[in-house]
Every structure is written in structure tokens, then in C-alpha cells.
Amino acid sequence: MSQWSQVQQLEIKFLEQVDQFYDDNFPMEIRHLLAQWIESQDWEAAANNEAMAMILLQNLIIQVDEQLDRVSQEKNLLLIHNLKRVRKLLQGKYHGNPMHIAVIISNCLREERRILAAASMPVQGPLEKSLQNSVVSERQRNVEHKVSAIKNSAQMTDQDVKYLEDLQEEFDFRYKTIQSLEQNDKNSALIKQEMLALQAMLNTLDYKRKEVLSKIGRVIHEIDMLISNMLTEELLDWKRRQQIACIGGPLHGGLDQLQNCFTLLAESLFQVRRQLEKLDELLTRLTYDGDPIPVQRPQLLEKVNFLLYNLFRNSFVVERQPCMPTHPQRPMVLKTLIQFTVKLRLLIKLPELNYQIRVKATIDNNRRFVLCGTHVKAMNMDESANGSLSVEFRHLQPKEMKTSAGSKGNEGPHMVTEELHSISFETQVCLYGLTMNLETSSLPVVMISNVSQLPNAWASIIWYNLSTNDPQNLSFFNNPPAATLSQLLEVLSWQFSSYVGRGLNSEQLNMLAEKLTGQQVSYNDYQLSWAKFCKEHLPGKSFTFWVWLEAILDLIKKHILPLWIDGYVMGFVSKEKERILLKDKTPGTFLLRFSESNLGGITFTWVDQLENGDVTFHSVEPYNKGRLSALPFADILRDYKVIMADNVPENPLKYLYPDIPKDKAFGKHYSCQPNEVSKPSDGGGKGYVPSVFIPVSKILNDSTEPHSPSDLLPMSPSVYAVLREHLSPTAIETAVSCKLSHS
After folding, report:
1. How confident is the model over 119-137, as a mean pLDDT?
2. CA angle, 161 as apex, 160 and 166 as ends, to 5°?
3. Could you read off the pLDDT of 13-65 as tens digits, one per residue?
4. 425, β-bridge pairs
5. CB–CB of 342/320 below 8 Å?
6. Most buried by CB count within 10 Å: which residue of 124, 212, 253, 292?
7. Which of 256, 298, 263 is nearest to 150 (CA)?
8. Which own/partner contact pairs does 294-302 have at CB distance under 8 Å and 24+ positions apart?
């Protein structure tokens, strides 16, 4: 079943998450129509290879053209329109930057895998539960309801101001009419009666002015309370969700809803400001003793201007944190002289601001680093799929400044990966006579000069964003706080779900907990130090826990990803636990686990039964990335042979724990079948028989552990079969044990 087919079968709450990351940059129609083709391409590799990305982009356009021909025959007008629009988008937007579409598609596929992994996990962790709090959802609904009510109140006040204006015009006309009369006429009884009517009208005007000012004051107060309390909390919650999403957590949403609230409130405040301007205009035409306008209007206008500034200041946010396109799963880690991207948004979406706001990017002011590239750009509504007022910097590069001695500061392999920096942004908004200077900053970033520093830098990013919601504590690692073990384990599971498509279950997390603490502990109570996580070596080892775990992530990603996604790699299980699991199983039952003593190693252990009925266990020397680069792990499991005493070599691996036939579990991942061997005449080069690697181990009578094999011997399956027919087991043993010499 294709990945897209699995996505379509998800529950609605997960489908809503999928919907959030498909937009006009990569429309969902194309994902749906070209599902199998898209999943069969290596978009991640293309994201780092411009030539490969260009080929994939051209092939993608060809695929769209083929779909366009098909739907044209079916006369599906809507789909024809959408496909033409997509084709124009692909040619226009990505032709000059094909790696960008590769990054987008790679990210979408990765997010799908993460959501599929999250959907398969039965239990939510404490962090994820806190993000989905029903109280938070209720507050979101209340904010939207109150914003709508405020908007209606401001519009109703508009009508009151208009009524007041009409009433004053009538008063002004009647008053001027009387003023134009001759003195004798003014003494008539009719005129005196009219004067009494004018006084009554003036009293009504005074009452209406006070009423309008009171209504305006209430609207301003409601906006003030909403911004100060509920809306500020909503924005802080969104920023916290963004932090969690950056370290692998659930995809954060809600920014469009916040934009709607911010925009409506800004429109309401500008509407109130126009109402106050209208009152000032009415004041110039008519005033009197006790007039409330000159007393109240300046205070109200000052409050409106303050609220507008406060609203604009809070609306200037970093929508997408700094990230190198080459490492999309490792945001906030920036390498010197390597481009990174960052996107900002103004949550107040007003058409008159389009292309009028220029944003400047700088790095924190310690003068150690500077930003190279285009660091000033205008916000616009054209580049975002949803029409938001935003700007994306795509060509910024951090550069370390030279010291006075002419050499660079700490750049090199020893650059401190616990030193935090900040990318700052500033702009000025000029609108309706108001000038507002706005500033915002990214979450803390870590600078590296060598890609080998990336694992430890990423550990710093994880620890910071797990431990604090303070967006700007650059001295955090001067005294890093401990983390709750339950939350840390949840984040570690996210590393696997986001990076390699499948999170960790409770048993796997239990093993990691014991690895971290050296004992069985309560998740909720145990506090783990930063040093224990990333600084101190594991007992008896020359590496830290994090280095060990990062090496496993790298192993999965590059060599056993399909097996991991299918759930066939138990991985995190101790030697003691694996023997408990295997001891009562059928001989030949095996499981796969990660090595605890070798970085980035995977091994398998199988159970066997001796002639006297005793159970014995065998574990092969761990396979590392060097050996797995020579032969796929699934093929190793298929072809693995063991020589025991004088017996004929045989494959001891029969059932994947608990009882899955090996070929049923791994068959679809075999590169070819053993009997599919070319004849000599098919070999092409001078009639040679193409060879394949056969992994072989030898077990002596006095040992239950296979020797370290010369493991990958160049021997075709057909040749091996012939040897078994014509040579004794001893001769075969001699053949596989001897070293190859140059011919």
C-alpha cells in the first residue's frame, strides 16, 4: 500500500494535520494524482543536488502533462483548470530554483510519515497532551467570538456617529437660519419657540456625544482586555507549539486563525480612530460649555494609538524558524557560510501594507557573526499560498568575523555548540499617520563550522526548547536546568517519528530510560541533567548517550529505513531482555537490535536448541554503515550462513520474533532472489559469472558466539550450490576462511 493510501485512511484529526502543509507551493491534487510516482523518487537527495532536482522537476512537469492529456479526454473542466495552474506554477516558480520544490516535496513526505507514525502510537506523551488541552481549544473559540462581537460593536458605533453627524448638521442649519434673521424677527414668539427647540436639540447633541464617547470607550476597553489576556495567551501558546514542532513534535497550526483575529482587531481600532477623527471634525464646527469631546477624545485617541502599536508589535512573528535546506529536520542549527531560510509574517493583513514594509535581518549584536546575502526584503501578499503578508529570506549566510589578530574566533572543530545566538528582524510601519517601529527575533540558534558538530548542536536545540518557553534566554547553558524524563523520552520518540518515519513504543522507551538512568525509575518523577544526556560518557563506553542515539538515527536513515518503518526492527532491547524474549521460542527465531557497544551498529540474535535440549543463543558481530553499504541488510538476513563444526553451512534465521516467517517479513525488501543468477554468457564481460556477497559466520564447538566473519565473500548462489554438491563441509570451511589473493 502506498504511503498516500495509508494517509487517506487516517482519522479526521490526523487528516487535518496533513491538510495544513499542502498549499499552492505543492498542491494536494498533484500529490493525489501522482502518488506512486512521487513516492518512488529520491526527493531528499535532490534537495541537495541541483542537477538531480532539475531532472526531477522536468519529469514532474511531464507527469503533469500526461495527467492533463488524460483529464482533457474526460472533459473534467475543474481538474483541467487546476492542472494548468499547477503546470504554470512549476515552470514559473521553480525553474530557477529546482532544489526548492525538492525540499518542499521531501518535507511533505516526511511529515506524512511522522503523522502516520503518530497515528500508530496508542499513547500520547505529556507534552502532546498539553498542546491539545481542551481548555486551550475553548479559549480559541472564545477569542474568535469576542473578536466578532467587538467588530460588530465598532460597526454599530459607526451608525451612532453618523446619526450624531446628521443631528449636528440639522442643528447647524436651524441655528444659522435664526442667526440670519433681522433683530426684530428674533424677538417674535415663534423664534423664541424655535430657540427653545434648538436648546433641546443641543441637549440631545450633548447626550449623543457622551453616548458615542462612552460606546467608543467600551469598545477600546474590550479590545484592551482581549489583547492583554486571551489574545496574548493564544499567541504565546502558538509560539510554544512552534517550539515543540521544531524539535519533532506535532505540526503546529492556528496561525491563520490568529491572523484573522489580529486583522479584525486592527480594523476595529482603525475604525474607532476614524470615529474619533470625525468627532474632532464635529468639534471644530460646534462646541459649547461642558462639551465632552475636548475632554475625552485625546485620552481615547492616545489609548487607541497605544493598542494599535501593541497589536502590531505582537503581530510581527517568525512564521518559520531559521533552517538550512540541506538539513530540514534540524532547524536552528546554522553552519557558517551555508545559506539558510527564515520566514516572517505580519498577522495584520491589510492590503495597503502590501510591499510597503521592508524587513531587515541581523544577527545578535556581539559582533562575532554577520549575515551575508540579501538581508533586507519587502513583505508582500503574493508569495504565500494563503495570501498572508509575509517575507521569506532564502539566501542568508552567517559568517564569523575575524579577530583583531586576523584569525577567526572559535571557528573550526572546537566551536562551542552550547553557545546560543539570535537572528533579529526590524521594520517600520507607516499607516494613517502612525509610525511604528517593530522588532522580533528567532528562537535561539547554534552556529557550527563543521557538519560533524551538528549532532551536539541539535542536542542543544532539543534541550533548550524542551526545557523553556523563553524565546530569548541566550545564557541558558550557563546553568541548564534538568528535564523531566517522561518529557525527554517523548521528544526522543519524536526524533524517530520525524526523522525516520516511526516513533518508539513503550518497551523501546523503557530501554532508553534504563540506559539514561542506569536503573528502573518512575518517568514522572525523575529529573535528568543536561550532562547525563549529552556530556558524560555512558558507563564503560567512550561516547555519550546522545552520540550513541544519533548514530542509530543515522544508521536507520541511510541503511534500514524500510525495515524500521515496517516495525520489524525491535532495536532498543538489552541483551538480557532479548534472551528472555527468545528462550521459549521456536529454534531459528531471531530479533534485530541496535548495538550498545558499537556506534551505529545493528545485530541479530537467534535462539537454537542443543541435542540435550538446552537453549542457546547466538549473536552476530554488529553490522555498521561500512558493511551495510556493501550489502543491504535485508539481503544479509536472507543469505546469512553459519558453519558449525563439520555441518553444511545453513541459514539459522527462520522466524522474526515473535513468529513471523523471515521471507514474509523481509521478502519485499530483498534486492533479488538468490536463484536469479545470470548465466556466464549473460555476464557481459568476457563470460564471467556475476558474483554476489554471501555473509558467512563460523561457530566453534566451544563457543556460542559466531566469530567475526570475513563476512561478505564474493560467491554467487549457483556456485555455492555447486560447492555443496561436490565438496565436503571441511573443504567449504577452508574455502570461506581463506583470504582472497590477487589474480
Report:
1. 62
2. 95
3. 778 778 877 877 788 888 888 888 988 888 888 877 888 888 998 998 898 88
4. 361, 440
5. yes
6. 212
7. 263
8. 296/213, 296/217, 297/213, 300/213, 300/216, 300/217, 300/220, 300/272, 300/276, 301/273, 301/276
Cβ contacts of 401 within 8 Å, gap of 6 or more: 367, 368, 369, 370, 408, 409
Tell me which residue has cell 481548555. 135
Look up cell 564447538; give the residue.
Answer: 701
By the 8 A CB rule, do 318 and 342 touch? yes
Cα separation of 397 and 149, whole Å?
46
pLDDT tens for residues 682-716? 444 555 555 556 676 666 554 444 444 444 444 44
Average pLDDT, integer, range 735-740: 41
Domains of the chain: 3-120 (1.10.532.10), 134-313 (1.20.1050.20), 324-401+416-449 (2.60.40.630), 506-669 (3.30.505.10)
CB 689 within 8 A of CB 677: yes
- As a whole number of angstroms, the distance between CA 361 and CA 66 comes to 43
Q: What's the rounded Cα separation, in Å, for the pair 18 and 28?
A: 10
Is residue 128 exposed (0-12), middle (13-18) or buried (19+ Cβ within 10 Å)?
Answer: middle
Return the pLDDT at 122: 53
Weakest mean pLDDT among 18-22, 127-131, 534-538, 650-654: 127-131
For the stretch 441-494, pLDDT in tens is: 999 999 999 999 999 999 999 999 999 989 889 999 999 999 999 899 999 998
Cell of 478: 550557563
Q: CA 430, CA 365: separation in Å to the nearest integer?
A: 26
Average pLDDT, the chain: 83
CA distance 147 to 139: 12
Are the CB atoms for 633 and 623 separated by under 8 Å?
Answer: yes
Give the separation between CA 49 and CA 54, rounded to whole angstroms. Answer: 9
**Residue pointed to by grid coordinates 489574545:** 231
What whole-number distance in Å separates Cα of residue 631 and Cα of residue 640?
Answer: 11
The DSSP code sequence of 32-101 is HHTHHHHHTS-HHHHTT-HHHHHHHHHHHHHHHHHHHHHHHHHT-HHHHHHHHHHHHHHHHHHTT-HHHH
C-alpha cell at 672: 533479488
Cα separation values, 634 from 61, 663, 689, 710, 721, Å: 34, 10, 23, 19, 21
Give CA–CA dist 196/193, Å, rounded.
5
Buried b / exposed e over 505-520, threshold 16 CB at 10 Å, is beebbbbbbebbeeee
Cα dihedral 499, 638, 689, 740, rounded to 10, equals 90
Cβ atoms of residues 373 and 394 within 8 Å: no
C-alpha 331: how far from chain center: 8
Going by C-beta distance under 8 Å and a sequence separation of 6 or more, which residues neighbour residue 634? 562, 563, 666, 669, 670, 671
pTM: 0.79
**Residue 346: strand, helix, or coil:** strand
- Quote the pLDDT of residue 660: 92
Would you state the pLDDT for residue 668?
87
The DSSP H or E segment spanning 374 is none
Lookup: cell for 113: 510519515
Band the pLDDT of 133: cuts 50, 70, 90.
low
Lowest mean pLDDT among 138-142, 209-213, 505-509, 672-676: 672-676
Strands 660-661 and 655-656: antiparallel
Instruction: Give the angle 555-51-453 at the CA atoms, nearest 5°.
Output: 40
Long-range CB contacts (within 8 A, 24+) of 455-459: 455/546, 455/547, 455/550, 456/417, 456/534, 456/546, 456/547, 457/330, 457/333, 457/417, 458/330, 458/333, 458/550, 459/417, 459/533, 459/534, 459/546, 459/550
* pLDDT tens digits for range 282-314: 999 999 999 999 999 999 999 999 999 999 999
CA–CA dist 669, 327 (Å, integer): 27
